[in-house]
């Protein structure tokens, strides 16, 4: 198939938008409120925000819908849209204005607040740069941590916990100029995307993936997530397998290990053990705990937007965080189906064919959100091969590697 991105400058061509979000299409849920039509018949698209937010798939038709949309948009170019990306950012504090003495005024009716932020905008629910991980700044002594996966379970914040938390957010360097979020999908196998991924300033990976595929997935790792269940199954809960865990972490360099330690009460102990193990062995990697309050807010935001997953995937959580932390964002290895866009069979992961636990995540539905964000220009969704340009330059536009 052709290239999936290329060069929208101000606005995408009318024929591309009409092919992607057609008011007369058989999937009316995709119709954004920003479409207007003049008496002359000219159609204008005025609201990028509705592309991803309006997606609602019919049961059992999600895969067919995605394939159909991908075929329609394969010829549509892409360019970064800072305005679309901006809606995913947490709003900056208002500028300081000295308080003047109050002047008595005649009471007026309350305003309609037309300029108040839309509650569904991601930036107004979830502040990743400050709250993605637990810190002493956002976790006061004596407060209670509510497990996002078990809201009935609450933990009292004591001195022992604060001692192992960082003082402030580890993302002080954000926003990063360029980021690569590297999923584990089989579509990365034989992709040749390693050099392109390693050129990113900030690289996010998931669940301690094997690193013996550098040609296709790169070697750089800034953040790596790990589900506590992996620590239990792969390293026996770190009771006797501490050294193998540290040696495995050594293959990633000096990343930040991001653990959802307080999503479920049963995983807090093994998560703490991972942190202590890295410290005891002098590992360059550093463990931090994801903030369950942030995760609960993120889940609520997307639940209101129609994403009905039992639990958001780690990939989806970190893509949302990266939208705030990164100026230019590219996704690799995100593809939820057993065949590639050309119909060739794929393994579940680029390193094995072990399927995930069914019924927990809504991967196809999450993928539609990535597709919508790509159409907005908020991020670039890369599928297929990466092809090096002359002298190791950027991937060539128009080369194989789009959808």
From TrEMBL:
Q: Chief location of this protein?
A: Golgi
Q: Where in the cell is it found?
A: Golgi apparatus membrane
> Which Gene Ontology BP terms does the record give?
N-glycan processing; oligosaccharide metabolic process
For this UniProt record, give its keywords in alphabetical order, as a comma-separated list.
Glycoprotein, Glycosyltransferase, Golgi apparatus, Membrane, Signal-anchor, Transferase, Transmembrane, Transmembrane helix
MF terms in GO: alpha-N-acetylneuraminate alpha-2,8-sialyltransferase activity
- What protein family does this chain belong to? Belongs to the glycosyltransferase 29 family.
| Name of the featured protein | ST8 alpha-N-acetyl-neuraminide alpha-2,8-sialyltransferase 6
To which species is this protein native?
Answer: Terrapene triunguis
């Amino acid at each position: 198939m052709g290239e999936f991105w290329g060069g929208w400058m101000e606005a995408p061509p009318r024929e591309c938008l009409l092919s992607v979000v057609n008011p007369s299409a058989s999937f009316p849920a995709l119709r954004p409120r920003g479409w207007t039509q003049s008496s002359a018949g000219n159609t204008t698209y005025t609201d990028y925000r509705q592309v991803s937010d309006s997606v609602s798939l019919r049961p059992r038709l999600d895969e067919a819908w995605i394939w159909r949309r991908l075929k329609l948009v394969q010829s549509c170019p892409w360019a970064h849209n800072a305005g679309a990306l901006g809606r995913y950012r947490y709003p900056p504090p208002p500028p300081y204005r000295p308080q003047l003495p109050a002047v008595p005024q005649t009471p007026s009716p309350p305003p309609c607040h037309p300029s108040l932020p839309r509650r569904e905008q991601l930036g107004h629910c979830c502040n990743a740069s400050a709250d993605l991980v637990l810190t002493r700044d956002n976790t006061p002594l004596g407060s209670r941590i509510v497990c996002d996966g078990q809201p009935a379970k609450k933990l009292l914040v004591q001195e022992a916990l604060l001692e192992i938390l960082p003082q402030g957010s580890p993302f002080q360097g954000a926003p990063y100029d360029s980021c690569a979020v590297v999923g584990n999908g089989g579509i990365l196998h034989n992709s040749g995307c390693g050099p392109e991924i390693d050129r990113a300033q900030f690289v996010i990976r998931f669940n301690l993936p094997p690193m013996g595929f550098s040609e296709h997935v790169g070697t750089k790792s800034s953040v790596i997530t790990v589900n506590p269940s992996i620590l239990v199954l792969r390293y026996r809960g770190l009771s006797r397998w501490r050294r193998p865990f540290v040696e495995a972490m050594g293959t990633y360099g000096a990343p930040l290990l991001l653990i959802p330690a307080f999503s479920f009460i049963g995983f807090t102990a093994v998560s703490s053990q991972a942190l202590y193990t890295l410290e005891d062995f002098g590992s360059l990697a550093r463990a931090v705990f994801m903030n369950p309050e942030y995760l609960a807010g993120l889940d609520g935001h997307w639940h209101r937007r129609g994403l009905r997953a039992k639990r958001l995937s780690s990939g989806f959580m970190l893509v949302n965080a990266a939208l705030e932390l990164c100026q230019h964002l590219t996704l690799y290895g995100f593809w939820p189906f057993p065949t590639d866009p050309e119909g060739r069979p794929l393994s579940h992961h680029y390193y094995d064919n072990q399927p995930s636990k069914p019924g927990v995540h809504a991967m196809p539905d999450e993928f539609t959100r990535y597709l919508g964000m790509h159409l907005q220009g908020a991020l670039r969704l890369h599928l297929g091969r990466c092809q090096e340009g002359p002298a190791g330059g950027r991937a060539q536009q128009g080369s194989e590697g789009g959808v």
